[in-house]
Amino acid sequence: MIVENQVQVVTVAALILFSVLMVGIGVYSSRKTRTVEGFLLGGRNIGAWISAFAYGTTYFSAVLFIGYAGKFGWDIGFPAMWIGIGNAVLGCLAAWLVLAKKTRRMTHRLGSKTMPEYFEARFDSGAMKIYAALIIFIFLVPYSAAVYKGLGSLFVTIFPGADIAICMAIVAVLTAIYLVFGGYVATAYTDFVQGIIMIFGVFVMVFAIVNNPEAGGFANAFAKVKSLGDAAGNPSLVSWFGGSYWKFLAYNIMLTSFGTWGLPQMVTKYYAIKDEKSVKQATVISSLFALIIGMGAYFVGSLGRIFVEVGEKGLPKGGYDMVVPQTLMNSLGADGNVFTTIILAIIMLLLLSASMSTLSSVVLTSSSAISVDLIPAVYPKFKDRHQMTALRVLCFVFVGLSYYFATQNITFIVNLMSFSWGVVAGSFIGPFLWGLYYKKTTKAGAWAGLVSGLATVVILTTIHTMISGDFKFAMNMSPQTGTSAMLVSVLVVPLVSLLTKNVPAESVKIAFDIK
Q: Fewer Cβ close by (within 10 Å): the C or N end of the chain?
């Protein structure tokens, strides 16, 4: 009891200091958010380090550590770290190299502040803007609800008996305050602070857990996981390329890496960066950040079998979501050592930082989809000052909606995260990518990409459900479904464009700076 109370006291003190800092940044940033562009993009004047950390912290939330790292670390073992490597190389390095400069230049020329506005200006289609805004509105709310769930699992582990709804409410209120005050500027600045905490926290977490007597160092930990895997009939836990899980591993690498190429909350980071010199610097910084965070998270998840009891059917006792929380508590919070207690508090801030940064970006994207993209399209007299008010109000509304869904304990909502990722990325990646590079991309081609991405996810999910008779199985197939949707979208756009001729000539001239 004394050990438990000590952990709680230190954690509460750290949370209070963290909260004060986040709110202070929000208030300080409020002076830079007097216009819609300032609120959404920071006046397109965000530097390299801030942009890189904003990208990286939006990429990784507590769902990575609590959900994916816990599940894949337990099921696949050390090969799960390939997902972290894939995220760094494909989701960060390749994404910045291929998309950043082109996106920055084109959105400047078109005057686009959001992805739906980009589609409208690039393909001369107001209907496309509305469709894209609806996709964002419908499918990003459950995404952010899953972020709450991931963080809540750790809260209730550190504070046994605590009401998870209250824990999530604290995160919701704190995020809403600094987001409503400071918009993207506050989000970017807090992301920078949160990113530093995440990097420091990952190094401390890995070092502390590996040096716990139960793990006994890197070599001994590897040997223990191997022996536990062999005993459980799962030698793939230490296979270089995932053994029998290699296909599943490949699908998850593809979905979680290339998915960022079509997610609006990720792509808008390119809109806001101030110049091309900053783009080069941010490319390197964000890639290194992703490598550290991704590999660190999956490595810790892979050590779960050392610290967590095996339950029924070889599953972790308490479920996959408790693998990382139990690993942390059993390795760092059980001995009453002041040093390990402080480390646990730092890791708590790491996961809080990861969640709040993702949540704020998703909420800002969802809010802009309604106030900037949807309402003005159906009510043209909606003025900029009204958009600013609507943006702030909708930030509160979307935080509240995400919180509501998270507290309903609806398994469907939680499992919908990968499904949502697949729908949004699958719908947008084709028309967005080809719109940047291919002048002859037609309006019909872009529509084909937008519709086929959603249709692929819906059709494949329906087929998997009908064949298995279990919707949960269909949700488990989300990585394959989302990857298929992205591939279909990328292939359909140029094919349909070749068969149609309605290229919006004037918008092409502006987008590609043709004199």
A: C
